[in-house]
Amino acid sequence: MAVQEARQGPEPGAHDGGCACGDCPHGAREGHRRAVAAFLVKRDEFAAGQGLPAAVAHSASASRQWVSEELTQSAELVAERGRAEGESWLSRVWQRTACTVGAAVVTLLLVQSLTAIGAGWTTARTAGLLAALLVGGALTAASWLHRARGGALAPVIGEDNRLSTSRVVAAAWVLFVAYAVLVLVGRLAAASGPAERDALISGLDLARGAGAVTVLAVVCAIAVLVRRVVGLRVLGQRLQKVRAHRPRAADLLTDDAGRGTFADIQYVAISAVALAFAAVRLARRPDQLPDLPWGLAVVVLVSAATYLAGKYAEGGRPVVLSVVRSREAGDLDGPIRTGDDIEIRGAGFVPPGAQTADRLSRMVVRIGAVHVHVPLVPVAGGFSNPTDAVLTVPVPAEVEPGRVEVQVITAAGVETNRYAIDVTD
């Protein structure tokens, strides 16, 4: 539908979507959608050999360069619209946070009212409701104060503008433990006798909540350690990271390329199950910290260790394995000369999350002292160049004949190893 609208042109009175009108049909989101649709139409037309000017149609290299430049400019517009849409989305998160918190409090009130039928209303129910109001109010206030940076999501958004799985899990455990302690505080404030107060205070003993406290400490340490590990690996060029336009819920279960990741999925799933168990234990025994069984606590710890190991194992530096002269059908075999195309074979040329045209157009090949931008070659549904394992670039006339080194610079700014080739006249 978006592609059809792009072919038909914009509606009368519609602007380009550069504003931040929220859910306005002509706002940032609509502007990004239209830019994407226009880019896809242009890419598919060029892939079919349409739209080439007569001045460059006679030369394969000239037409390829012209098409690449046109697609790069269009991709930059898409990226600009995407950033505007991401900023607009982040600025609206605090409103959704307030609605979500309000719905959660109302749901808790309904559940407590239904379960109180026959059993009667107790101080524990009042304490639970007041604790939910306090936690929800704090979340809403923090979300409003940080509304320009994603509201309540600001602490759990990584430096690459994606949701961090480790931070989200740690934040969930922190909020739950804070809620459980507030429930005990409310019950302690309403306690009438010294015996009841002593029993509530003893409910905070480490012997009763050792499992939950241990899990809380480990998941918080994992969140801090993962940030350190990722940062060091990026600075050491052992991990490639590109910035996303905005965080998405799918970031919790996938890698930067959008593929499901076992380490993340099992960590989120097991943590969610453990939190559900702890919440039921708190509802059944609101006079003490949830006594998470050591068996379940050890399962969470194993899951956290697996997640951390996955962070250490992911990534890798891009590498050039070989460079050969690109040969088309009918060409004679020969050495690499200036003006020829070379095919660079290797691995890791396209970082995860950099499959979009605006990221691909930022790839550069250094041939000697000359920097050559990798041309975008469109095909139906994507690009045949560049790819993660093969790049094709021309050897410009500025390259001096002789032995020169070839090096690829990815969209994440990571450099590959140097590979020497011989260029003849």
Automatic annotation (TrEMBL):
<dbReference type="InterPro" id="IPR013783">
    <property type="entry name" value="Ig-like_fold"/>
</dbReference>
<feature type="transmembrane region" description="Helical">
    <location>
        <begin position="98"/>
        <end position="121"/>
    </location>
</feature>
<feature type="transmembrane region" description="Helical">
    <location>
        <begin position="168"/>
        <end position="190"/>
    </location>
</feature>
<keyword id="KW-0812">Transmembrane</keyword>
<keyword id="KW-1133">Transmembrane helix</keyword>
<feature type="transmembrane region" description="Helical">
    <location>
        <begin position="127"/>
        <end position="147"/>
    </location>
</feature>
<feature type="transmembrane region" description="Helical">
    <location>
        <begin position="210"/>
        <end position="230"/>
    </location>
</feature>
<protein>
    <recommendedName>
        <fullName>Integral membrane protein</fullName>
    </recommendedName>
</protein>
<keyword id="KW-0472">Membrane</keyword>
